[in-house]
């Protein structure tokens, strides 16, 4: 399950990932698949989402202000999103980009989740992911001047007992990307301190995040306090 545009872009995506631990995938899915999935998500957010306004201790007390959909809610309400996560062809395409084995994460609640930022000051604050890769499918995106951008610092370790977020952000460099609706991006999120920048007005950012693991990830025990607090 990968669009022809995605397949054709793999050499350029590989180069981008090698340089920056990030690759934006244009036209991630065909238009009809994108729009049908967007309708599913809008329905789920309208009826089954939960509002979260919390600070997460494991990432230095950084804020979360958004609406969420948990993995099981999405699994019951969407036909496409679970299929994307389970697709061997999708993982094979990702492996061509990153140059190593890409595996489904074993912890079900983190396999795929969705968030919606839509109120002024909504933010997904600085954090690291529990597993190596995040594949983020963008369904709605505000204008760049209104926030909602991905910001990240690559190649920094996560130490939950001493996360040093302010130090890493101050040292930088902070890389900023503003992917388009309909695209997806792949981020080496386990070793990149990253956030979604605050909305400066009542705009909308809606996305689905798929998590994938490296072989090394599966050799270690992982804790999941952050995801449990949010979803």
Number of helices: 7
Category by helix and strand content: alpha+beta
Compressed to H and E, one letter per element, the order equals: HEHEEHHHEEEEEHEEEEH
Q: Going by CATH, what is the homologous superfamily?
A: q2cbj1_9rhob like domain
Determine the N-to-C terminus distance.
Answer: 27 Å
Anisotropy-based shape: globular
Strand runs, count: 12
CATH architecture: Sandwich
Radius of gyration: 16 Å
Biggest sheet statistics: 12 strands, antiparallel
Strand content: 25-35%
- Amount of helix: 25-40%
CATH third-tier fold name: Jelly Rolls
Mean pLDDT: 94
Number of structural domains? 1
**Sequence stretches where pLDDT stays below 50 over 5 or more residues:** none
CATH class categorisation: Mainly Beta
Protein name: 2OG-Fe(II) oxygenase superfamily protein
Describe the model.
The chain has 231 residues and is an alpha+beta fold. The chain has one domain: q2cbj1_9rhob like domain (Jelly Rolls, Sandwich), CATH 2.60.120. Helices cover 32% and strands 28% of the residues. Strands 1, 2, 3, 4, 5, 6, 7, 8, 9, 10, 11 and 12 form a twelve-stranded antiparallel sheet that branches. A hairpin with a 5-residue loop joins β2 and β3 (62-69). It is globular and about 40 Å long. The mean pLDDT is 94.
Chain-wise SSE layout:
Elements (H helix, E strand, L loop, with lengths): L3 H17 L1 E4 L5 H18 L1 E7 L5 E8 L1 H7 L2 H7 L1 H11 L4 E2 L7 E6 L5 E5 L5 E8 L9 E4 L11 H7 L3 E3 L6 E4 L5 E4 L8 E9 L11 H6 L1
Antiparallel strand pairs: 1-10, 2-3, 3-5, 3-6, 4-12, 5-12, 6-11, 7-10, 7-12, 8-9, 8-11
Helix pairs in contact: 1-5
């Amino acid at each position: 399950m990968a669009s022809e545009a995605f397949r054709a872009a793999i050499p350029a995506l590989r180069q981008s990932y090698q340089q920056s631990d990030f690759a934006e995938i244009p036209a991630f899915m065909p238009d009809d698949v994108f729009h049908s999935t967007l309708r599913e998500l809008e329905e789920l957010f309208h009826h089954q989402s939960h509002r979260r306004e919390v600070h997460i201790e494991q990432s230095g007390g950084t804020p979360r202000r958004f609406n969420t959909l948990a993995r099981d809610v999405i699994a019951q309400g969407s036909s496409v999103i679970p299929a994307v996560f389970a697709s061997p062809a999708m993982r094979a395409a990702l492996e061509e980009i990153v140059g190593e084995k890409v595996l489904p994460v074993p912890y079900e609640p983190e396999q795929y989740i969705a968030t919606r930022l839509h109120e002024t000051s909504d933010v997904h604050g600085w954090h690291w992911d529990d597993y190596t890769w995040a594949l983020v499918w963008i369904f709605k995106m505000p204008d760049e001047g209104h926030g909602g951008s991905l910001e990240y610092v690559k190649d920094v370790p996560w130490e939950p007992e001493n996360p040093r977020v302010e130090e890493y952000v101050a040292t930088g460099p902070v890389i900023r990307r503003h992917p388009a609706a309909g695209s997806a991006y792949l981020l080496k999120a386990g070793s990149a301190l990253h956030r979604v920048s605050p909305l400066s007005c009542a705009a909308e950012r809606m996305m689905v995040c798929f998590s994938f693991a490296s072989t090394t990830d599966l050799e270690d025990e992982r804790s999941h306090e952050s995801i449990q607090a949010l979803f």
